[in-house]
Design goal:
The protein has nine helices and eight strands. By secondary structure, it is an alpha/beta fold. The structure holds NADP nicotinamide-adenine-dinucleotide phosphate.
Length: about 300
């Protein structure tokens, strides 16, 4: 039996900088806390600066010597993504980890500030832009990683690059699934381009299975209905966060891999390498998604070999 991978397996992170999006709650807060306890400098990139500040205070209580910073980042507003990236660039000439964790599921609002379907905008497009604006701070850093955060629901996702904003009410779950398939498709293509450019940075993905966070806050009826089943259906945040941590720091992890819970249906359990949907490896689709993401965000991602 393979031993369980736990937070005790997270190596020391001294002198490393980790940017975690959506780090004020749920999985992101847990990931940032564990990294801070291992001495990483963590940047909490969150849309509400008060929530970010109180998360930072909470992390400092459990990791008193940690350097914990905050930056305001609203992924559903590309101007905010640009501001956040600019602030991070001023503070950090090198970034080791970019953990694109923030996400939204079935929100009542349909469109982002820039007019895109909100789940696609938050979960994929905002992170695409953030990666593009920070990548050159990573490409000369050995061991640096971009971690995209997907969901087991990506398995039912279909990318329709010509119709990314599907807004019929009945299409909202499929929009979420599409956004999470986009996360993996983008990370897989990014990894190909990093490899082709002979860059030390790797890109990979992780998902937390079914974890007991507030992710269903926008669908209270479903949340209430499922509450009695939660102990069976969901795992604790501590275990859910391990997939992201493993993708971020396990020395054995390789670019292009996906980490998720090892239990049935990848719902619960300690993290292991799992199979991504075959569709996420469709290179033609990945190229189209990349081009459309550049067009919508106005951020072009050029992966170039760092100057020695
Ligand atoms: N929990 C699960 O069972 C599950 C399953 C599969 C995948 N996931 C994925 O895991 C990741 C973490 O989710 P979670 O379960 O920890 O949910 P959560 O507790 O709801 O946390 C989501 C985080 O994303 C942030 N966020 C939402 N919209 C944002 C925006 N426009 N700009 C910046 N930040 C934004 C939230 O900020 P606010 O606090 O300001 O709203 C919060 O910090 C998400 O990508 C989610 O899709 C979760």
């Amino acid at each position: 039996v393979t031993p369980r991978w736990t937070s005790a397996d997270v190596p020391a992170q001294d002198d490393r900088v980790a940017v975690v999006t959506g780090a004020n709650a749920g999985i992101g807060l847990e990931v940032a806390t564990v990294l801070a306890r291992r001495n990483a400098t963590v940047v909490l990139a969150c849309r509400d600066i008060e929530r970010a500040t109180s998360a930072a205070a909470q992390i400092r209580r459990s990791a008193p010597t940690a350097v914990v910073e905050t930056v305001r980042l609203d992924l559903a507003d590309l101007a905010s993504v640009r501001d956040a990236a600019a602030q991070i660039r001023i503070r950090h000439p090198r970034i080791d980890l970019l953990i694109a964790n923030a996400g939204v599921l079935l929100p009542s609002q349909h469109f982002s500030t820039d007019g895109f379907e909100l789940q696609l905008a938050t979960n994929h497009l905002g992170h695409f832009a953030l990666v593009g604006l920070l990548l050159d701070r990573m490409t000369s850093v050995p061991g640096s990683r971009v971690v995209g955060v997907t969901s087991f629901l990506q398995a039912i996702g279909r990318l329709r690059v010509d119709d990314l904003d599907r807004t019929r009410r009945s299409a909202r779950l499929s929009s979420y699934a599409q956004s999470k398939l986009a996360v993996t498709t983008f990370a897989t293509e990014l990894q190909r381009r990093l490899e082709e450019a002979d860059v030390p940075t790797i890109a990979l993905t992780a998902h937390p299975g079914s974890s007991a966070t507030d992710i269903a806050r926008h669908i209270p009826r479903v949340e209430r209905a499922l509450a009695p089943l939660a102990p069976v259906l969901q795992q604790g945040v501590g275990v859910g966060a391990l997939s992201l941590l493993r993708a971020a720091v396990d020395p054995e992890a390789r670019g292009g891999e996906l980490y998720g819970p090892r239990g049935p249906f990848q719902w619960r359990g300690h993290p292991t390498r799992v199979r991504a949907p075959r569709r996420s490896r469709d290179r033609e689709m990945a190229r189209r998604l990349w081009g459309e993401s550049e067009r919508r965000t106005g951020v072009e991602i050029r992966v170039t070999t760092p100057v020695a």
